[in-house]
Amino acid sequence: MPELKTLSLFFLTAVAEIVGCYLPYLWLREGKSIWLLVPGAVSLALFAWLLSLHPTAAGRVYAAYGGVYICVAMIWLGLVDGIRPTLWDAVGSAVALLGMAIIMFAPRHA
C-alpha cells in the first residue's frame, strides 16, 4: 500500500506543479489576466509542500518525481492542450515511470 500512496502523492504533486506553471503561461503567452498569478503561486506552494511529504531523502524523491511528472505532463497534453500523445510519448512515459519505480521501491539496506 505504500506504493499506491507514493504514486498518488507524486500525481497530486505533478498536477500542482503543472497548474502552477500553466497559469503564468496563460498570462504571459495567451494574454489572460494577471490575476492568474495568484492561484499559480498558491499551486506552486502546494507543489513544494506536497513534495516535502515523502519520508525518504529529498534527492531520491526529486529524481523519482521526475518520472511521474513526465507521465502527468503527457496526460495534460491530451486533456488540456488537446493534442493526442503519440506512441513514443507513451513509451517514454512508461520508461520514466519504470525509472521512478526502481528509484522509489528498490530494496534498501540502511
Helices and strands, in N-to-C order? HHHH
Count, helices: 4
Protein structure class: mainly alpha
Radius of gyration: 15 Å
Report helical residue fraction: over 70%
- CA(first)-CA(last) distance: 21 Å
> Which of globular, elongated, flat, extended, rod-shaped describes the shape?
flat
Integer count of domains = 1
Low confidence ranges: none
Q: How many E strands?
A: 0
Major sheet size, sense and barrel closure: none
Mean pLDDT reading: 92
Strand content: under 5%
Could you walk me through the main structural features you see in this protein, from its secondary elements to its overall organization?
With 110 residues, this protein is an all-alpha fold. The chain has one domain. The chain is built from 4 helices and no strands. The longest helix is centred in the N-terminal third of the chain and has 29 residues, at 2-30. The two termini are 21 Å apart. The mean pLDDT is 92.
